[in-house]
Amino acid sequence: MTTTPTDDAGSSSTGPGTARDGAAAPDVTVAPDGTAVQDIAAQDAAAQDTTAELADAMTRAIKRIRRLTSERLEPFGITPGQGRALRTLAHAPGCELPDRAMRLGDLAERLHIAPRSATTVVDALEEAGLVERTPDPADRRAVRIVLTTAGRSAVERIGQVRHEVAQEYFGPINPADQDALLRALRSAESAYAATMPPRRTAPPGAAR
Question: Does the model's pTM come out above 0.85?
Answer without folding.
Answer: no
